[in-house]
Amino acid sequence: MKLSIIIPALNEAQILGNTLESLKGPPVEIIVVDGGSRDGTVEVARQYTSHVLVTRAGRGFQQDTGARQSHGNVLVFLHADTQLPGKYPHLIHQALDDPGVIFGAFSLGIHRSTPVLDFIAFIANLRSQLFKLPYGDQALFVRRDSYFQVGGFQDWPIMEDVDLVRRLNRAGRFKLACGSVKTSARRWEKENLIFTTMRNWSLMIRYYMGVPPQALARHYPDTR
Questions:
Q1: Is residue 47 a part of any domain in this protein?
Q2: φ, ψ for residue 171 (rounded to 5)?
Q3: Do residues 140 and 134 make contact, with C-beta atoms less than 8 angstroms apart?
Q4: Of 12-16, 105-109, 195-199, where does mean pLDDT reach its minimum?
Q5: Which CATH number goes with the domain that contains 32?
Q6: Which residue, 18, 90, 156, 223, could crosslink 213 as a Cys pair with Cβ 3.0–4.6 Å?
Q7: Looking at the domain assignment, is residue 192 inside a domain?
Q8: Number of domains within the chain
Q9: Residue 174: which H helix or E strand, with range?
Q10: For residues 135 and 123, what is the distance between their CA atoms, to the nearest angstrom?
Q11: What DSSP character marks residue 85?
Q12: Whether the model pTM is above 0.90
């Protein structure tokens, strides 16, 4: 399997370098898709990879653009503030060893450990195991042909990951890989922990009730 790691970014100069540094070593294709950053994100990305695309902003659009420019037969969608576990190529290959499994993700870990953040990670991992519903901050990976078969990411400002996962679940099986990613705690650090968690749950409920992602996005501020 050849892995293509696709990283959407927007004003992530302060944190992107750490993520790209953590990917050094394995022979994988790394594609950074910038959404029009004004803080030097593109310059940081070019220190680590020659595959840097500049598009309009929109995480779903950016990730789909990266997928269409990639060459790997397994696509890994990694947030700019998230780091993969060690030996991640082996863990991904292991998860996809069963040909019936078409996509997967890692367990969620958060860089800062507190009782509340540990509980948030626990709930996310329980949700992934019981309902096969990982989120984008868990480094979704998917077979290339399956990604395009279901239509890829939609151009949505929010819930693009949930939408893709729901379609993939209808097309094949999901596997939670061994190991955990480490994602930044910045969203919870900049906002009240309880408020942020309750707001996120409220957004999810409203999404399942049919509220358009464009309307939901107004209640999901950018904390970078």
A1: yes
A2: -95, -25
A3: yes
A4: 195-199
A5: 3.90.550.10
A6: 156
A7: no
A8: 1
A9: strand 173-183
A10: 12
A11: P
A12: yes
What does the DSSP assignment read for 113-181?
A: --HHHHHHHHHHHHHHHHH----GGG-EEEEHHHHHHTT---S-SSSHHHHHHHHHHHHSEEEEEEEEE
User: From the centroid of its chain, how far is CA 28?
Assistant: 17
pLDDT in the model for residue 12? 98
Q: Which long-range contacts (CB under 8 A, 24 or more apart) does 49-54 make?
A: 49/20
For residues 123 and 163, is the Cβ–Cβ distance under 8 A? no
Exposure of 120 in the CB half-sphere (CA atoms within 13 A): 25
Integer-rounded Cα radius of gyration of the chain: 16
Q: In angstroms, what CA-CA distances link 145 with 98, 120, 139, 152?
A: 15, 33, 18, 10
Neighbours of 44 (CB within 10 A): 24
For residue 90, give both structure tokens: 């082996």
**By the 8 A CB rule, do 83 and 24 touch?**
no
The pLDDT tens digits of the residues spanning 93-117 come to: 999 999 999 999 999 999 988 898 9
CB 84 within 8 A of CB 139: yes
Query: Which range of residues forms the domain containing residue 102?
Result: 3-184
Q: Is residue 161 part of a domain?
A: yes
Query: What would the pLDDT profile of 156-194 be if each residue is shown by its tens digit?
Result: 989 999 999 999 999 999 999 999 999 999 988 887 778
Compute CA distances 178 → 19, 27, 28, 88, 92, whole Å. Answer: 20, 20, 19, 9, 8
* Inside any domain, residue 61: yes
What is the Cα–Cα distance from 155 to 212, expressed in whole angstroms?
12
